[in-house]
């Protein structure tokens, strides 16, 4: 088995009075897209910044591409690409100048113009950074992260604050990167993003990983079930009792149940409603998402 | 290397796109240039124009140093630009080096620009050592930029940096000597100023630009600047912070003091040797001697006995430039400070051809030379002095460190003794009251009795007062002697000639006459001494080598202690 791209165990980080990371461990294999999912302040950014070599850790074992980020920070930085959460460039720096300037720090770089082409920035080559839109700035940040042709890319909240259209563009770009067999570690507080882009996800809350696995596995582990809901046009008569494991709501105008086999159970429920002489107002099949996983694991919502 | 070059090139491009840089680097100094030039009447002399250029260059170095690199570092950190650099495989060194070099590249053209304006706008002569000036200026701007970087390294926010920068910038501006002459500050502030880096910057630039000295002569300043640059750069690489969230501890701010250490050491040395202050005095003298003066509507006693009843005289660069008979042009038309002289008489500075500067044995020669100057005696011949001490004094007079009458030596005639009555009149005269050291007269009056009561020999052909002996007070004695000559039957013109032109001829000095090319040593008296010789004591102005002597403050440094 090849060495993992990232190995983390028992990672802790304390600031003056708070413990931001309290014992995190995971591994990322080559070519994998790994997501760290959690609300603001959960410790995601602290974790990735330790891996990038930007911050010292308080305790724990960390290897990134075989390096210890705290000790071999310059060598590690030569080999990774980083797209930071909140970063900026001087207003009057042109796009190609930013690429040249940052390229000058690396031992090996890819040609600038094809890279800008891949990120649809060719037209903006000579534009000042200050004139770029949010999406263009983010694409430039991605281009800068790829200037040294890294095998491992860190994307810290790559779509936060962008409108849905631009977010979609960025998603497509990340999928392209994944297709070129690069390892990616991504932090996000968007469920859809993690579900859509990541091979594996770790859910972080208050400095700990509360669950990890592929999005599908996580959903299955936590619920193993979808939620069925049927609403009636009129209340159910007094004597009637719902079938199967379904429960009646307080106004007696709807039933709900958890189901491992939603397709079969829905037919049974519809049949029963018919027999009660009621009309169906609405049927909902609610497949669980990471959001639900998160809620059930942590007791609070992601975007609180 | 590639990293450094790319960094410098792109930083340079960014700088050139910044209009503020253009404004603060070029337009702003220009405004100050014209303001200073106007205030100092830079058009009057090349020396003054050079001092104005030096002052504005110092403004440039300070502004560039404190508001350039440091502010940029803090604002880039505040706006999260530096974070991006932090994830790249680099240390702070290429960035900091880029900022230093670009600041320098910005400064050089603006310095050249200032020199050109001085040259073509104000008839400033070309700097005698342009390359030395270039080296020193470059070193200065780099060193002050390094100080700016250290400040940036130890502040936590833009606000803090504004405060700290102002705390450094303003005192450095005001105590440098570029705005207010150091010599006009109170003594405690003068001592303090010797520890201020900008004061050494000022003395270095002035030594090279105004006095045309070598880099070696500004060696101490060069070493201090070089050390500051190295320490500043090294520390700012070490202390550099990429993120605004990274705070620095209060104690780290003390690192700023490390950068100032070379100058504290230099200040301590200077405090001991008083060199900084001496240099400042010399500079001020150069400035004051460089002014253009125009006397108008005045009676001129030429020195050879001839009198121009109504005329004028132009002084330029410490020498008499031109004599006018009758109408005198407007001061503005010759770019001069006008001095109205109606009812007054302008004479060559008086010459006392025989004095004993080292007597009585109680005070330093310096104060006595000041007393002569106070009384309009601009040259004295000294008898029986220690030649080595006198040579040092002459040197200090020449450089302007010491303000006092010129001294020459040579020859000796034993003085004729004066009567007690003569000395009493001298001591009781108003000039003596003003020029005598504290307590001198009170001490002298009781021992007058030791002098012969009424011995009064015929005066010599020249005025040789023999001051220093026989209770004859340095300075006022010349006026008493002029009076005695007239009492003995010589005409006032004849007596005045003996104290001016004739004495100068005998001593073979280019003074004693109102002639173009002669030293501008002048006395302006209130009235007409040709009718009443006592008028010579009513002195309204003394000029020495073109400097209007501030008579009121001549004795300040001697008598206040």
Helix and strand arrangement:
The complex is a heterodimer of chains A (304) and B (561).
Chain A: E1 6-14, E2 19-28, E3 33-37, H1 44-52, E4 59-64, H2 73-79, E5 80-83, H3 95-103, H4 112-118, H5 134-145, E6 152-156, H6 164-179, E7 183-188, H7 191-197, E8 200-205, E9 208-213, H8 215-222, E10 226-232, E11 247-248, E12 254-259, H9 262-275, E13 280-286, H10 290-298
Parallel strand pairs in A: 3-7, 3-8, 5-6, 6-7
Antiparallel strand pairs in A: 1-2, 1-4, 8-9, 10-12, 10-13, 11-12
Chain B: H1 2-16, H2 19-40, H3 46-78, H4 81-86, H5 93-122, H6 130-154, H7 158-175, H8 187-193, H9 197-209, H10 219-239, H11 255-273, H12 275-289, E1 293-301, E2 307-316, E3 319-325, E4 337-340, E5 344-348, E6 350-355, H13 365-374, E7 377-382, H14 387-399, E8 406-409, H15 420-428, H16 430-435, H17 440-444, H18 477-487, H19 492-498, H20 501-507, E9 522-526, E10 539-544, E11 547-548, H21 556-559
Parallel strand pairs in B: 1-4, 1-5, 6-7, 7-8
Antiparallel strand pairs in B: 1-2, 2-3, 5-9, 9-10, 10-11
Helix pairs in contact in B: 1-5, 2-3, 2-5, 3-5, 3-6, 3-7, 3-9, 5-6, 6-9, 6-10, 6-11, 9-12, 10-11
Largest sheet of chain B: 8 strands, mixed
Helical content of chain B, roughly? 40-55%
- The low-confidence parts of chain A are none
Number of helices of chain B: 21
Distance between the termini of chain A: 41 Å
Extended strand count of chain A: 13
Radius of gyration of chain A: 24 Å
Numbering strands along the chain, what is their spatial order in the largest sheet of chain A? 5-6-7-3-8-9
Give the CA-based shape of chain A. Answer: elongated
Approximate shape of chain B: elongated
Determine Rg of chain B (CA atoms, Å). Answer: 29 Å
Q: How does the major sheet of chain A shape up?
A: 6 strands, mixed
Give the topology string of chain A: H per helix, E per strand.
Answer: EEEHEHEHHHEHEHEEHEEEHEH
């Amino acid at each position: 088995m090849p060495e993992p791209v990232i190995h983390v165990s028992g990672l802790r980080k304390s600031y003056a009075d708070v413990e931001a990371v309290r014992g995190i461990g995971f591994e990322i294999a080559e070519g994998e897209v790994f997501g760290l999912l959690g609300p603001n302040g959960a410790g995601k950014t602290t974790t990735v910044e330790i891996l990038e070599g930007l911050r010292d850790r308080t305790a724990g074992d960390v290897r990134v591409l075989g390096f210890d980020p705290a000790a071999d920070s310059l060598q590690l930085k030569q080999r990774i690409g980083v797209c930071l959460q909140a970063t900026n460039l001087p207003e009057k720096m042109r796009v190609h100048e930013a690429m040249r300037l940052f390229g000058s720090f690396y031992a090996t770089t890819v040609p600038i113009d094809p890279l800008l082409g891949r990120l649809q920035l060719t037209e903006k080559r000579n534009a000042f950074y200050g004139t770029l839109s949010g999406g263009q700035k983010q694409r430039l940040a991605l281009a800068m992260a790829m200037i040294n042709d890294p095998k491992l890319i860190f994307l810290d909240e790559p779509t936060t604050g962008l409108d849905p259209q631009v977010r979609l563009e960025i998603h497509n770009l990340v999928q392209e990167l994944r297709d070129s067999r690069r390892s990616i570690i991504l932090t996000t507080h968007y469920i859809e993003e993690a579900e859509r882009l990541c091979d594996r996800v770790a859910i972080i809350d208050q400095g700990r990983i509360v669950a990890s696995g592929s999005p599908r596995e996580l959903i299955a582990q936590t619920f193993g079930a979808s939620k069925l809901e049927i609403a009636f046009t009129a209340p159910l008569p007094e004597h009637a009792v719902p079938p199967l494991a379904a429960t009646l709501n307080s106004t007696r105008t709807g039933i709900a149940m958890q189901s491992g086999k939603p397709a079969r159970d829905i037919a049974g429920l519809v049949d029963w409603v018919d027999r009660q002489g009621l009309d169906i107002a609405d049927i909902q099949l609610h497949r669980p998402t990471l959001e639900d996983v998160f809620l059930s694991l942590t007791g609070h919502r992601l975007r609180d | 290397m590639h990293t450094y070059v790319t960094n410098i090139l792109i930083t340079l491009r960014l700088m050139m796109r910044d209009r503020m840089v253009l404004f603060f680097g070029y337009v702003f100094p220009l405004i100050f240039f014209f303001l200073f030039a106007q205030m100092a009447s830079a058009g009057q002399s090349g020396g003054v124009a050079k001092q104005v250029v030096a002052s504005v260059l110092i403004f440039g170095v300070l502004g560039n140093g404190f508001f350039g690199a440091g502010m940029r570092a803090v604002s880039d950190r505040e706006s999260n630009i530096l974070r991006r650099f932090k994830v790249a495989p680099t240390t702070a060194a290429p960035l900091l080096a880029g900022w230093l070099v670009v600041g320098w590249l910005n400064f050089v053209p603006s310095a050249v620009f200032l020199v050109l304006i001085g040259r073509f706008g104000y008839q400033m002569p070309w700097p005698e050592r342009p390359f030395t000036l270039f080296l020193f200026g470059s070193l200065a701007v780099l060193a002050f930029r390094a100080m700016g970087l250290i400040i940036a390294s130890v502040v936590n926010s833009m606000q803090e940096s504004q405060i700290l920068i102002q705390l450094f910038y303003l005192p450095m501006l005001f105590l440098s000597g570029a705005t207010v002459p150091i010599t006009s500050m109170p003594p405690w502030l003068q001592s303090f100023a010797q520890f201020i880096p900008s004061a050494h910057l000022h003395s270095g630039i002035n030594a090279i630009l105004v006095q045309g000295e070598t880099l070696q002569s500004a060696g101490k300043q060069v070493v201090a600047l070089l050390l500051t640059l190295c320490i500043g750069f090294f520390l700012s690489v070490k202390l550099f912070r990429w993120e605004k969230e990274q705070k620095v501890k209060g104690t780290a701010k003390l690192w700023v003091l490390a950068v100032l250490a070379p100058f504290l050491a230099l200040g301590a040395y200077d405090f001991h040797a008083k060199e900084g202050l001496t240099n400042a005095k010399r500079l001020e003298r150069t400035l004051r001697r460089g002014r253009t003066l125009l006397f108008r509507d005045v009676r001129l006693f030429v020195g050879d006995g001839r009198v121009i009843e109504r005329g004028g005289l132009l002084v330029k660069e410490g020498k008499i430039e031109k004599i006018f008979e009758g109408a005198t042009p407007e001061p503005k038309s010759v770019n001069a400070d006008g001095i109205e002289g109606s009812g007054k008489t302008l004479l060559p500075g008086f010459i006392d051809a025989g004095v004993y500067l080292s007597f009585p044995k109680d005070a330093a020669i310096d104060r006595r030379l000041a007393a002569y100057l106070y009384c309009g005696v601009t040259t004295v011949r000294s008898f029986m002095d220690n030649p080595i001490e006198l040579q040092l004094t002459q040197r200090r007079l020449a450089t302007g460190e010491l303000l006092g009458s010129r001294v020459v030596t040579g020859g000796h005639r034993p003085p004729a003794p004066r009567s007690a009555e003569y000395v009493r009149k001298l001591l009781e005269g108003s000039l003596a009251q003003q020029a005598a050291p504290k307590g001198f007269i009170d001490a002298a009056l009781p021992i007058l009795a030791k002098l012969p009561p009424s011995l009064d020999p015929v005066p010599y052909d020249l005025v040789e007062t023999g001051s220093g002996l026989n209770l004859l007070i340095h300075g006022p004695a010349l006026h008493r002697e002029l009076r005695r000559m007239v009492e003995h039957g010589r005409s006032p013109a004849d007596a005045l000639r003996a104290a001016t032109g004739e004495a100068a001829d005998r001593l073979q000095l280019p003074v004693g006459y109102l002639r173009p090319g002669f030293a501008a040593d002048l006395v302006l008296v209130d009235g007409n001494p040709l009718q009443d010789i006592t008028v010579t004591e009513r002195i309204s102005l003394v000029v020495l080598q073109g400097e209007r002597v501030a008579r009121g403050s001549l004795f300040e440094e001697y008598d206040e202690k």
